[in-house]
Specification:
20 strands, globular, five-stranded mixed sheet, about 30% strand, Glucose Permease (Domain IIA), about 350 residues, single chain
């Protein structure tokens, strides 16, 4: 059976109702809840203008890497889509021993056993269906994987061991990279084959097809408000830009996440999608005017070039902001194939 068809079956079969989210951290490291950043986040190695440092802040979610000096001050331009949770337990040789556990009940939908097939190294993706919508937790840089595709797992169940597989890591910086994602499109594989020469070894669970929300903040807010849902959480995010895309039967985002759609129109000719600065979609609105290609319709005003403020989707300032080639390509993914 073709991979895309199989993916559709897997997704469709797993859509079930589970209104309340029960979620917990994936390792014994719970310093996040004690507001101890250096104890929770794995540091990165930085060389900024010849000055070397190991800031733990680089393990946080968001624009936390690759500082660039600007007239407005230092801007961090590289986005980190998840959080890096540092190791607590090692053997006599320094090898990490931390168990990695599922953050919530779900179904294993992907495992990558070959470290060279992804910057995540060995990684696992688990699908969680909350209130009818699918979300995907991703666990990266694993030394070993203890579950298989199709296996159902419970919150807190061991799924792997922490490691340092993936590009640029070593034993000292062993950690688990954790994400909680939305998915863009089930037709990702054909889009990828059209746009990239490198082979896609991870199907629709390639990181490009997954948009990660601020999982650390979600953990903290959920701890305060146990009934917090993902829609409620994302409703608190600020819209940074909007893009209108053509209407298409393959616009999976509004099928996966109907709560994003703020007005339903039978005669919609296009859809305006609101995005956070992180690139996470927040809202979808029907539009009666057709567009032939993705069109930027709003950008938050800033004196800083949007090339520094987004993940490469936009460039330019103010009224001169525009979708980059990369941004255009990514927006085409939303309705692929048009």
């Amino acid at each position: 059976m073709p991979a895309i068809a199989l993916a559709v079956i897997v997704l469709s079969a797993s859509f079930a109702q589970n209104p309340k989210i029960e979620i917990s951290l994936p390792t014994d490291n719970d310093a996040l809840f004690r507001e101890s950043g250096p104890d929770f986040y794995q540091y990165i190695e930085r060389d900024f203008h010849g000055e070397k440092s190991t800031p733990w802040e680089g393990g946080r979610y968001g624009f936390v890497r690759n500082p660039v000096p600007t007239a407005q001050g230092l801007i961090y331009t590289r986005f980190h889509e998840g959080i890096d949770i540092r190791c607590l337990h090692r053997d006599a040789h320094g090898e990490p021993l931390d168990d990695v556990r599922a953050i919530a009940d779900g179904k294993v939908v992907h495992t990558n056993q070959l470290p060279g097939y992804s910057n995540y190294g060995r990684y696992i993706v688990i699908e969680h269906v909350w209130d009818g919508s699918p979300y995907y937790s991703l666990y990266g840089h694993l030394s070993e994987i203890a579950v298989g595709v199709g296996q159902r797992v419970n919150r807190g169940e061991r799924i792997a061991r922490m490691g340092y597989t993936g590009e640029g890591l070593n034993q000292a910086r062993a950690h688990v990279h954790l994400e909680l994602n939305l998915m863009f499109n089930r037709n990702f594989e054909s889009w990828h084959d059209r746009n990239f020469r490198d082979p896609n070894h991870n199907g629709i669970y390639n990181g490009i097809n997954l948009a990660g929300l601020d999982i650390a903040r979600f953990f903290l807010e959920h701890d305060k408000r146990p009934d917090l849902s993902v829609p409620q959480f994302l409703a608190e995010e600020e819209t940074f830009y909007k893009v209108t895309v053509p209407d298409s039967p393959h616009f999976d985002l509004r099928k996966f996440y109907p709560w994003m759609v703020k007005n339903v129109a039978a005669n919609a000719k296009s859809w305006e999608v609101s995005f956070a600065r992180s690139g996470v979609p927040l809202q979808i609105e029907a539009r009666s005017e057709p567009v032939s290609q993705p069109t930027l319709t709003y950008v938050k005003k800033s004196a800083i070039d949007c090339a520094y403020l987004t993940r490469g989707e936009l460039a330019g300032r103010g009224d001169h902001a525009h979708l980059t080639e990369n941004g255009m390509r990514l927006m085409q993914l939303l309705t692929w194939p048009e």
